[in-house]
Amino acid sequence: MHEPAYVGALDQGTTSTRFLILDRSGHVLSSAQQEHTQIYPQPGWLEHNPLEILERTRTVIDLAFQRSNLLPRDIAAIGITNQRETTVVWNRHTGAPVSNAIVWQDTRTADAVARYAASEGQDRFRAKTGLPLSTYFSALKLQWILDHCADARIDAERGDLLFGNMDSFLLWHLTGGPGSGIHATDVTNASRTQLMDLHTLDWDPGLLALFGIPRAMLPVIRSSSEVYGSLAVTALAGVPIAGILGDQQAALVGQACFRPGEAKNTYGTGCFLLMNTGEARVSHHGLLTTVAYRFGAQPACYALEGSIAITGALVQWLRDNLGILERSDQIESLASSVPDNGGVYFVPAFSGLYAPYWKDSARGLIVGLTRFTTRAHIARAALEATAFQTHDVLKAMEQDAGFPLTRLRTDGGMVGNELLMQFQADILQREVLRPAMRETTALGAAYAAGLAIGFYGSLDELTANWRIDKIWTPSMPTSDRDRLSRRWKKAVERSFDWLDDELHIRS
After folding, report:
1. Are the C-beta atoms of 242 and 453 separated by less than 8 Å?
2. Residues near 153 by Cβ (< 8 Å), separated by ≥ 6?
3. Which residues pair with 161 in a beta bridge?
């Protein structure tokens, strides 16, 4: 009997879609990646074309498979990991979206946040969902689509429309679409909608009624590791899809953070610090409680999460909007050309501030500018902003957890930046670790799929795969760290409530 030696991982991210084929040890045999268009209809809005992403998905699966020189039977299963909260509504009969997807960073629902928070506060749903009221999550984006797209609410109440984050949209299409597509999601993605009860792991009838969302639109909530169906399209038709994890939870699994207290920080478009907490725990210091993973019929595992909206996206902004860089990878050499930030601090609150502040009305600012300031100082301040924001989240996480984190596991596109990683260790006053396998998000999806079909036998096997590539240790004098942190806090507070007057007038 032929034993498959590989697993696949579809990583559908905010800026691109990738497909990787990995061996049992987590090494990448082949991969393919394509970017998709970022659509900005007006300030604060960000959309994606779901059909463009679907086309890119099919393309990268086929490209990576062609490059591997394997047969479909050599691949045991594939897992899906995805940008979370990004909201898609499509017709169950045609598969056509009713609009562009509303991306997780989009802030068009700020008025609705203010309206729902007016009577009982921003935390009115936190005990049930683990989440504060924010433009970040899916529920209000879905409500906006139903209220603003022609006939959408009528069609939804008639049962003609389906909702999902990108995992559900891709799963449905990849398993056959109209007539045979599987309409499901996993508990990690469902926990980001603000519609799921953290305790029952099911859609909450009261929240559906409050937000005016027909239950028939919603996918079935399943575990993160089970066989959902088989690919009906692409060169891998017939291969089972057996794992789904939101991208940050996938990175937690890929980093083998299976014990309570273990944490990782992913440096991507945004930054996401997650700590395994085992049993559910609602944060009291501005963090999210989210489902970390659920493997098969085992109980769900939970995590505290600190979400930062803009980190790697800030480097792209310097490149695309200001022209300070020609390529994103030039930022380290430019920032390293000056010994410090020259007194400049950059608060990238382009979509408001997420954890631990949750200020939808904050906006980005650069402070401390003088005639001495150069583009190199601005570049350095942009990198440092990522480390400062991570520090803010980590302090809140330690307060919730009741114990300090001694080491921080890192992953994501920015961890190759040596300047950033050293500054991160200095500001945290803790060791920062980079794993040998940096594609931890894809790895987590592959692990979930492999566990479901017996390709992997246990979590211990996954833990044994984890290896350290490099450790950064803090070397900055305490007085310098305290001065930098104090000025950063001052800059952050300047960004608060920039849009308060406008929100009050509109609401």
Report:
1. yes
2. 146, 147, 212
3. 91
What angle do helix axes 418-428 and 375-401 make, rounded to 10 degrees? 40
The answer to whether residues 265 and 387 touch, using CB atoms and an 8 Å cutoff, is no
For 210, residues 6+ apart whose C-beta sits below 8 A from its C-beta are: none
Residues 133/117, Cβ–Cβ less than 8 Å: yes
Q: How far apart are CA 469 and CA 486, in angstroms?
A: 32
**What does the angle CA 397 – CA 398 – CA 399 come to, to the nearest 5 degrees?**
90
Rounded-to-integer distance, Cα 77 and Cα 75, Å? 6
Half-sphere exposure of 370 (CA within 13 A, CB side): 6
DSSP 178: T
Helices 375-401, 478-495: crossing angle, 10 deg rounding: 90
Contact call for residues 295 and 252 (beta carbons, < 8 A) = no
pLDDT tens-digit map of 51-79: 999 999 999 999 999 999 999 999 999 99
Q: What is the pLDDT of residues 215-264, one digit of tens each?
A: 999 999 999 999 999 999 888 999 999 999 999 999 999 999 998 888 89
| CA–CA gap between residue 244 and residue 190 (Å, rounded) | 11
Mean pLDDT over 19-39 rounds to 94
The candidate with the shortest Cα–Cα distance to 76, out of 144, 147, 22, is 22
**What pLDDT is recorded for position 57?**
97
- Neighbouring C-beta atoms of residue 507, cutoff 10 Å: 12
The pTM is what?
A: 0.86
Question: Do 219 and 138 contact (CB within 8 A), yes or no?
Answer: no
DSSP run (H or E) holding 311:
none
Order of all β-strands in the sheet with 240-246? 28-35, 16-23, 6-12, 75-82, 240-246, 225-230
pLDDT at 297: 92
Structure tokens at 430: 């803790």
Query: Mean of the pLDDT values across residues 109-125?
Result: 90
Q: Mean pLDDT, to the nearest integer, of 26-38?
A: 94
